[in-house]
Amino acid sequence: MNLLKSASLILCMIVTGCSSNSEKPAEVAAVAPKIDAAWLDDYETRLREALKDSRFELERRDSVLVVTAPVDSSFNPDRPGMLLPVTLAPITRVAKLVEQDDKTAVIVLGHADSTGSDEINRTISRERAGAVAAIFRLSGLKHDRLRIRGLGSDMPRAANDSKEGRALNRRVEMVLAPQTTLLALLAEYNQPAPAATQVATAEAVK
């Protein structure tokens, strides 16, 4: 009888031990870094000064600051991936502002209207984002604080059923945020890189 009790006790201990070892520890939810309101206030003031007299727009969206360059007044209509000279000074001022603060990062987002195929839209929107990002690189901003995405027509500002709406959707956005939030922001905009495509000028002008 004692032998039977001992065997039962050992078996119980083995089963209990295996059960506890197989249980995975509870996952801890990732907490997004808290954005300092003082950072937003300070940067918004400095960005408005940098963008003074330009056609760019500045807005605060939740925890980021977004500078928007409308395509129609910022890019060469005959060479859709080339910035107009009038845009170079304000973009350079924004780039220098970011480069001088190693705690700030930027994501450059290219957008198109819905005219044409998804592949063409992604290609041209990425080219435009790349043209803007090139100025940030020339200003000294390193890769760990600079990312680009070509989103095509996936994130419109307006309906694409009018000329005015399509013009609003053709844009490049510079999203400024503390570097600690960069990875979380990138997750919102992750898109596969578009295939290399030769786009006729008539098709590429979105």
TrEMBL record:
Range of residues in the leader sequence: none
Annotated keywords: Membrane
Keyword Membrane belongs to the record: yes
Xref: InterPro entries: Bact_OuterMem_StrucFunc, OmpA-like, OmpA-like_sf
GO CC terms of this entry: membrane
SUPFAM superfamilies: OmpA-like
Keyword hit for Membrane: yes
Pfam families (alphabetical): OmpA (PF00691)
Domain OmpA-like residues, every copy: 62-180
Record-given protein name: OmpA family protein
Organism in which the protein naturally occurs: Stutzerimonas stutzeri
Lineage: Bacteria, Pseudomonadati, Pseudomonadota, Gammaproteobacteria, Pseudomonadales
